[in-house]
Amino acid sequence: MSKGLKLTDILVTVVISVVFAIIYRLWGDVSNVVKLAGFQLDQLMYGVWFMAAVVAFLIIRKPGVALLAEIAAASGELIAGSQYGVEALTYGIAQGLGAELIFLLFAYRRFSITAACLAGVASAIASLVFDAFKGYLLDLESWNLILYFVFRIIGSIFFTGLCSYGLVKALEATGVTQLVRPASQADFDALERRQ
User: Fold this and answer.
1) 6 secondary structure, DSSP code
2) Half-sphere exposure of 72 (CA within 13 A, CB side)
3) Count of CA atoms in the C-beta half-sphere (13 A) of 20
């Protein structure tokens, strides 16, 4: 299987990203409503903003896809009128790099739920670094800051890891992913066993 991105890979990644751009744009409003409850509960939902990278990588399974997907989704969110403005794009780049780093560490050969969850955590850490540069984290009390970090990590494990993995598995069950992923040697071996 070729490791380089083909035009088809890029187009499928962009289509996935457009879907997530719409979700990201709408998710900002949902997050604002949850934020009203206080206690950093909105951080539990933050993992949705990292999903494009993981879903695209689990489907395409090639280097660079996670970063491309997150940048494209963040760009789409920005174009759709994100309440976060250009910041959505800068966060998207950092979050995509976080996920891409995890897949690189696994040499782009692990497509497991563990890899998906770790990619979510890495994206969360990247976003937390950007939050730290904004300076408002220092205004939080210790207990509130701990909730902020812990809830964001939990949300990233749940949404970015578990939900993304579950979504891709559901797509695989329909056979849709076979349209973009070439047949592997295991697929050919299975066909030969049936004859």
Assistant:
1) P
2) 21
3) 31
Query: What Cα–Cα distance (Å) separates residue 185 from each residue in 64, 109, 179, 188, 189?
Result: 23, 15, 16, 5, 6
Half-sphere exposure of 75 toward its Cβ, with a 13 Å CA cutoff?
13
Tokens read off for 157: 């494990």
Number of neighbouring beta carbons within 10 Å of residue 103: 28
Taking 90 as the threshold, does the pLDDT of residue 114 lie above it?
Answer: yes
**What is the Cα–Cα distance from 10 to 68, expressed in whole angstroms?**
8
* H or E stretch at 99: helix 87-105
CA distance 195 to 193: 6
29-41 mean pLDDT: 91
pLDDT band for position 49 (cuts 50, 70, 90): very high
Which amino acid is residue 185, in one-letter code? Q
* 111 exposure class (CB count in 10 Å sphere: 0-12, 13-18, 19+): middle
pLDDT at 133: 87
CB 68, CB 96: distance < 8 Å: yes
Angle at 87 between CA 86 and CA 92, to 5 degrees: 105
Average pLDDT, the chain: 91
- Residue (of 11, 8, 54) closest to 158 by Cα position: 54
